[in-house]
Structure formats: C-alpha cells, structure tokens
Write a structure and sequence with these properties.
Layout (H helix, E strand, L loop, with lengths): L1 E2 L20 E2 L2 E2 H11 L4 E6 L3 H8 L6 E6 L6 H13 L4 E4 L3 E4 L5 H8 L7 E7 L13 E2 L5 E2 L7 E9 L15 H9 L3 E5 L3 E4 L3 H14 L1
Parallel strand pairs: 1-4, 4-5, 8-12
Antiparallel strand pairs: 2-3, 6-11, 7-13, 8-11, 9-10
Length: about 230
C-alpha cells in the first residue's frame, strides 16, 4: 500500500501544480524511488491511493510495467492513512502487507531493506514491524527521532531524544483494522497500540535515509546524493 493521496502542504508552492509523489529528486520522482525498491524486492502488486492531483499520478503510473499498479481512488474524500488502508482492504486481502510513504527513500543500501523487513516479520510475535533509520546522520530529519528499540527489537516509546526515526515503510497485519467503524482516521495510533502490547518491532535500515518533506529538503537530498557519487 503506497500512500500518494496527501496534499503535500509542507512542499507548497510546488505541490499546487505537482503532487508531492511526483516531485523529482536527482532526476527520479519520489513515487518511482519508492516503487523501485519494492519492484527490486520482488513485490508484484502495489496499491496506490490518490486524491490530490490524482490524474497526474495515474497518468505517471501508467508508464510503469512493474510492479502491477491498482489505484485506490480517494478523489471524493481524503481518508488519511488509516482510512486509506481500510478502503483498500478488499484489494489487500488477508495476508500481511507493506505500507510505504512517498516522502522519503534511501541510497547505498548494502542489501534490500524491503526484503530485510519481510524476513524479520514474524506474525506470531508481531502485529507490525517498521523499518527504522538512525536519527543522527539521516538527511532531512528536523525532529528528535521517533522510537527506541529494546534488546529483542521491540519498538518502545519514550520522552526526549530518540535514536531512530520511522522511515515510512512497514509491514502489518490487515486484521488490525477489523471492526473499525470510522472511514477517516490516522495510522499511527495502530502502531502505538501494537507497541503497548509488545507486538511492534523495528528493523534498522541499511544505507543513507533521506526525508524529503519540504522544498528545502529537495536540495539537501540532492546534495547528499551528489556527495555519494
């Protein structure tokens, strides 16, 4: 499930005419960078939700051969990430699935981070697992981190500076959304609930993670990429 429906408010004025997933960083759109990772990991189907400037995203996706794309149309109402998943559940099915934001990516990974996350996910122990990156050294991180990990790899929440940020990529069980009555709701509370039960785990990513959430962050990411070449 690839989240491409947002308004991109922090990246205005660019996103007034171009949806954030189609913003290019070093010659490749954010959306393609995300889909490339899943294609390279062997993922065959990507469900992409659309709302803001949806026609542009659909037209762009029509140029890709892999993975196979199915659109979840939210033109009528923006559902937030949790609501977007609920709407797409008939397409997702009963097996664990990936989620992916389109405002970040990584470079120079020693191996596929997507594969590493899939291999680490144990449905008997976990309701969800998140791909994390070090808060220090990642590009575009303008906050104090998101999570810490215990010795067994469980994600824990605490106050103050936190050593890891959520990369926007995770894997989770669709059963987490069973019985949810609302249509518009956030995803993060489901992660927090899983963490409170000791069933949210983290996998630290390989390579350099780049968060591209603002106009200024585009140039920061491009400088970081150029420095690695």
């Amino acid at each position: 499930m690839v989240f491409a429906a947002g308004l991109g408010a922090r990246m205005r004025p660019i996103t007034e005419k171009t949806p954030k997933p189609l913003v290019s960083v070093a010659g490749r759109t954010l959306l393609d960078r995300a889909l490339d990772e899943f294609e390279n990991a062997g993922v065959e189907l990507a469900i992409v939700n659309v709302h803001h400037l949806a026609d542009q995203i659909e037209s762009h996706l029509a140029t890709r051969a892999r993975p196979r794309i199915v659109i979840s149309d939210e033109r009528a109402l923006l559902l937030d990430q949790g609501g977007g998943i609920k709407k797409a559940l008939p397409l997702i099915g009963d097996d664990p699935f990936f989620v992916c934001n389109t405002d970040a990516f990584w470079i120079d990974a020693a191996r596929s981070n997507v594969r590493a996350l899939a291999e680490a996910f144990d449905p008997d122990l976990m309701d969800a697992a998140l791909l994390l990156a070090p808060t220090s050294g990642s590009v575009g991180v303008d906050w104090g981190g998101d999570f810490d990990l215990d010795a067994e790899g469980r994600i824990i929440r605490r106050d103050g500076q936190k050593p890891f940020v959520y990369t926007g990529v995770g894997v989770m069980k669709p059963q987490l959304f069973a019985g949810v009555a609302d249509d518009v709701f956030k995803l993060a509370p489901f992660f927090f609930e899983a963490a409170s039960k000791g069933r949210l785990y983290g996998v630290v990513s390989s390579g350099l993670w780049l968060h591209v959430g603002t106009v200024a962050a585009i140039a920061d990411a491009e400088r970081a990429i150029a420095a690695r070449r």
